[in-house]
Amino acid sequence: MLKKWVYLFEEGNAEMKALLGGKGANLAEMTNIGLPVPQGFTVTTEVCTEYYNQSEKLSDEIITQIDKSLVILEAKTEKQFGNKENPLLVSVRSGAKFSMPGMMDTILNLGLNDETVAGIAKITKNERFAFDSYRRFIQMFGDVVQEIPKAEFDKILEDAKHKNSYKDDTQLTTDDLKEIVVAYKKIIKDETGKDFPMDPKDQLLMAIEAVFRSWNNKRAISYRNMNDIPHDIGTAVNVQSMVYGNMGDDSGTGVAFTRNPATGQNKLFGEFLINAQGEDVVAGIRTPKNIDDLKDIMPEVYKQFHETAALLENHYKDMQDIEFTIEKGKLYMLQTRTGKRTAAAALCAAVDMVKEDLITKEEAILRLDPLSLDQLLHPTFETEALKNAELLATGLPASPGAATGKVYFTAEAVCTAAANGEETILVRKETSPEDIEGMYAANGILTARGGMTSHAAVVARGMGKCCVAGCEAIKVDEAAKQFVIGGQVFKEGDYISLNGSTGKVYKGSIKTVTPELSGHFGEIMAWADEFRTLTIRTNADTPNDASVAVRFGAEGIGLCRTEHMFFDEKRLPSVRRMILAESKEQREKALAEILPMQKGDFIGIYKAMEGRPVTVRLLDPPLHEFLPKEARDIELLAADLGISNEDMVEVIHGLEEFNPMLGHRGCRLAITFPEIAEMQIRAIMEAAIEVKEKYNFDVVPEIMIPLVGIKEEFTYLDKIVRDIAELVKVEKKSDIKYLVGTMIEIPRATLIADQIAETAEFFSFGTNDLTQMTYGFSRDDAGSFITDYKEKGILTNDPFQSIDVEGVGSLVQTASILGRQTKPELKMGVCGEHGGDPKSIYFFHSIGLNYVSCSPFRVPIARLAAAQAALGK
Ligand code: PEP
Ligand code: MG
User: Fold this and answer.
1) Which of 14, 545, 573, 744 is spaced 20 to 30 Å from 828 by Cα?
2) Residue 108 pLDDT > 60, yes or no?
3) What pLDDT is attached to residue 280?
4) Is the separation of the CB atoms in 837 and 803 below 8 Å?
5) Which helix (H) or strand (E) holds 290?
6) pTM of the model
7) Is 831 a catalytic residue?
8) Contact 188, 138 (CB under 8 A)
9) Residue 766 Cβ < 6 Å to ligand 1
10) Distance, CA 662 to ligand 1 centroid (Å)?
């Protein structure tokens, strides 16, 4: 049997997106459920591939199949291609498997020529309409098919308007349009050396080929690169009989969503224009009317559209984005597709649809993008604090959330201030791509110019960062480092606050609060928890982070990095004395100063976690990280320790390493200086016993040894941990339980995991270091070349963001298998950054790990991703 290259709409269905493209498959589906779709056929995506395989030629067989479909279309519409009395006109549109809006080409009114134009004039009793359509067709054909610059056609049109002193295209008379048609045809003759093709069949084949060529135009290629769409799947072409929304006041065209795409509210949302064609709505030449108004203007059509929209949503079981045209009071459906929506709308619609029995909870969970939840987790202003705030101006609410900080006028200044721990707001006239790092570092962004789709708005939304754009009331003087609002001057370092959800700009600093996870969010999370089997923990080093994470649903701490506590300004002097001690006694003295502070930290964290498990890691970074780098700070430290500056410099120098990441860090520190570990173990145990007794929380501390690569490293330190822990238990007369485990973050450890599991009670995969050491890429420096690797197709993903399943993932899997060979009940989780990345979470679930641990704001994302993993994503 011959291969089928062309499908009539009634021969396809919604499942055939790969072959018919999204648009073609949905047109077929709508046709088959009996909706009023203008008749037509789809030339498949395989024809596109074949076209390229055959050096950009359509084979005779393909042309024959197109001809046959055309004959059927003529019979159905009772019109004929090229017929003077009753001509068939068609649109020719692209449509790939994945939606690529506006990236490829479309041709309307195909079939018009010097003879059929008269037929159309006669049928519509509107000669002007016929010639306007004709000149539009020649222009589109010349531009898209024959690649003649659009400007040449525009010039003719502008000249005609100018000559007659018209303001609008609508003032052009039939005679003007006839002259324009002649002029347009001349451009084509001059540019191509041939007459404008009068045979509609020639027009059609040329148009189909042009759509195939547009698959590989520059913007389509970059769109596919940006959206991970394969380049070899090709586009289909839909040939559909034309309907006209511009045939008078009983005609029109519009676009509508079955629910509100911004909020998810279950109410038809859309716009339409009377007496207009599709492009007029998109181009924004006239202001469209709200879809609700159609009820008054054309009640019958509105009723039919409303019912059809409901039917489509019910049929597809998802929010639809629908294009329609009304031709002389008759409704036609031109397209339906899944509607793009905000994260809030996605959540709201998913929950509502479960309640409406439209979809199951499983479908609701699988349909959401975990990463998009990030947009909903942003802070808001404290209500009380906001009452006293002075409103300065209102701009556009470009990206939601609340932010407060000191103003800075360059990305660089923001980065420096943010690195010093300051809260910052980047204020710019408008942002450009060079500002990206500053935008990332800032708490919020304020621009004087630019709309909702300006660079600042688009980038900020992508980052989930609060942004107020186009706030024209502010006068920014970047050179003078100041801005003025209503006579008030704000200089670099002054505080302001932004509400990116309302566009409001306030004077001074306003306290922000983290959002409550209630309503739709809470419901989705609760459903996710029903399905997931992975436990979600958090990486938290402070009681505050721990409480935020618990509110987001964290079930424990998977990694508490104790070094962050050592950097605290108040304890840094003791830490430095400890590092620079010349004897064990001196070191123990300094450690004794640190002990109560560490214990205090742990008490706070255990309290915040209310009995949930807490994994505390012993000190990890190389010690020189705690020593000063600036000359002035070195002098001060020397004075504090009572030694000469030269000696101080020498000691610091002595601690420097060529490759600190591969140097004296992790468990190696505890092996050289067991007293540091001893102090930490004591603090962990004493704090746990105190909180357990005082608050009756069931605290079971999990003490974790970092960077183990040799079995004996672990057994050596395991003994120290247990000796001290037991000693504290005796001292405090406590029977508290505790666990001792290890990070698995050195490739060697993954290969001897069975040996380590003989003593270790849990494994926590440090996939940051494991990625670093497996690739041999420095995690601090790889950023500079990973972009090149991605651009050159050597890497598809940054392995520090999403787990490299084949390499690093395989090591994790090996370790998990070996570990469980020795100890079937061994608890295993991940605490590297990958613990908050949905794709990585799917993988960790698939190899049977027990938990992932991620930063507090990632916890909801991880909960949803873990549920999706359990549901087979
Ligand atoms: C890791 O290496 O994955 C890890 C969690 O530890 P850190 O990032 O502190 O080195
Ligand atoms: Mg590590």
Assistant:
1) 545
2) yes
3) 66
4) yes
5) strand 289-290
6) 0.79
7) yes
8) yes
9) yes
10) 13
Cα–Cα distance, 127 to 177 (Å, whole number):
10
Residue pointed to by tokens 């002097």: 573
Query: What's the Cα-to-Cα distance from 548 to each of 89, 541, 553, 556, 858, rounded to whole Å?
Result: 62, 12, 9, 12, 11
If DSSP codes are grouped into helix, strand and coil, which group holds residue 101? Answer: coil
Tokens representing 422 are 């300051």
pLDDT value, residue 546:
93
Which residues, at least 6 apart from 125, have a Cβ–Cβ distance to it below 8 Å? Answer: none
Strands (E), 673-779: 701-705, 739-744, 762-765
Identity at 57, one-letter amino acid code? K
Atom of ligand 1 nearest to the CA of 769: 2
3-class secondary-structure state, position 741 = strand
Q: List the catalytic residue out of 455, 520, 624, 834.
A: 455
Reported as a pLDDT band with limits 50, 70 and 90, residue 283 is low
Give residue-wise pLDDT tens across range 430-455: 877 667 778 889 999 999 987 655 66
Q: How would residue 136 be classed by pLDDT, with cut points 50, 70 and 90? A: very high
Q: Is 13 in the pocket of ligand 1 (CB under 6 A)?
A: no
Region for residue 147 given its phi and psi (left: phi exceeds 0; alpha: psi -120 to 50; beta: otherwise): left
pLDDT at position 432 is: 72
Task: For residue 653, indicate whether it is catalytic.
Answer: no
Task: Please check whether residue 107 is in contact with residue 237, taking contact to mean a CB–CB distance below 8 angstroms.
Answer: no
**Which has more pLDDT, 460 or 655?**
655
Least confident range of 461-475, 536-550, 823-837: 461-475
With the most atoms of ligand 1 within 8 angstroms of its CB, the residue from 567, 617, 620 to mutate is 620
Residue (of 555, 417, 617, 629) closest to 856 by Cα position? 555
* 769 touches ligand 1 (CB under 6 Å): yes
The owner of tokens 């700070």 is: 633
What's the confidence (pLDDT) of residue 78?
94
Q: Which of 85-89, 102-106, 706-710, 798-802 has the lowest mean pLDDT?
A: 102-106
Sorted by sequence, the CB contacts under 8 Å of residue 537 that are 6+ apart come out as 554, 555, 556, 557, 558, 559, 613, 615, 829, 831, 835, 851, 852, 853, 854
Q: Closest Cα to atom 1, ligand 1: which residue?
A: 766
Q: Per DSSP, what are the bridge partners of residue 497?
A: 404, 506
Helices (H), 477-569: 519-531, 543-551, 563-566
Question: Measured at the alpha carbon of residue 706, what is the angle toward residues 693 and 602, in degrees to the nearest 5?
Answer: 25
Is the backbone of residue 92 left (phi > 0), alpha (psi -120 to 50) or beta? beta
Residue 404 CB partners (closer than 8 Å, separation 6+)? 423, 425, 443, 444, 495, 496, 497, 498, 509, 510, 511, 512
- Please report the DSSP string for 406-472 in residue order: EEESSHHHHHHHHHTT--EEEEESS--GGGHHHHHHSSEEEESS--TTSHHHHHHHHHT-EEEE--T
Q: Is the pLDDT of residue 279 over 80?
A: no
Side chain identity at 791, as an amino acid letter?
E
Distance of CA 197 to the CA centre of its chain: 46
The verdict on the CB of residue 541 being under 6 Å from ligand 1 is no
Q: Which of 565, 831, 844, 849 to mutate to test the pocket of ligand 1 (most atoms within 8 A of CB)?
A: 831
Terminal Cα distance for the chain, rounded: 38
pLDDT for residue 651 = 87
Length of the chain: 873
Burial class for 194, CB neighbours closer than 10 Å (0-12, 13-18, 19+): exposed
pLDDT at site 461 = 64
DSSP helix/strand/coil, 551: helix
pLDDT in the model for residue 617: 97
Smallest Cα–Cα separation from 857: which of 439, 604, 539? Answer: 539
- Residue 731: both structure tokens together: 């001292």
**Chain mean pLDDT for the chain:** 92
